[in-house]
Amino acid sequence: MGMVFFVLGLVFGSFINVLIWRIPRRESIVFPGSHCPDCGKTLSARELIPVVSYLIQKGKCIHCGRRISWQYPAVELITAVGFAFYQWREPSWAALVSKLILFSLLIVAAAIDLRHKRLPNVITIPGMVLGMILAFAGWSVPIGSSLLGLMVSGGLLMAIALLTKGMGMGDVKLAALIGAFIGPWPALASIFIASLAGAVVGSIYLLITKQGRKTPIPFGPFLAFGALIGSEIFL
Ligand SMILES: [Zn+2]
Among 89, 107, 129, which residue terminates a domain? Predict the structure, then answer.
């Protein structure tokens, strides 16, 4: 079963790549089919096999030779590992589905924030609603926990955003989304882990690149990372 979910994750990961590319560009996520962003050639089934195509084509488009970002196979692999992990970890189908939805939302949000330094409302707002619906349906945390999580987690980042200039409204909404999925305590733990990771990675990054302390570093990927850990340790 783990292997089945790994393969399922690879396939779903290539769909996540489509979302990551198209959502910030406001393109339709259904039409047209996957194509090379450089030469526009529509990709054939053979070129769409996750990870394998990338390796066979040595990371290049077979039509125009343009380099394909390593981000594609990376996202596919991460999604596959996540799917296999949650299948192994979650006892019920309901819990599994709600974890996979949260996991997928976090990957899309983190990757877009990393690239474009923003967290689109198209992901965070429906994500928050979905988190509450899943709780209401009894698939994740109790509904009271979900609502409290949303308010506590979003409220804390809202306060930080108002007091400092480093946090954006996108981060506030992503934190609220996480709270709606996993409840208040795991969400607070996630924010704590995210801040710690952000401080460490941020300082190293600024040291290596010799940039000033004013350089904006997106917080979304750290929040996503924090939530992945926080939701496993404290649930
Ligand atoms: Zn091409």
Answer: 89
| Domain span at 46 | 1-89
pLDDT, residue 130, reads: 98
For 138-165, what is the mean pLDDT? 95
Domain count across the chain: 2
Last residue of some domain: 73, 89, 105?
A: 89
CA distances from 221 to 6, 13, 114, 127, 234 (A): 23, 17, 7, 16, 20
The confidence band for 234, taking pLDDT boundaries of 50, 70 and 90, is: confident
The alpha carbon of 46 and the centre of ligand 1 are apart by a number of angstroms equal to 15
Listed residues: CB within 5 A of ion ligand 1: 36, 38-39, 61, 63-64
Cα of 38 from ligand 1 centre, angstroms: 5
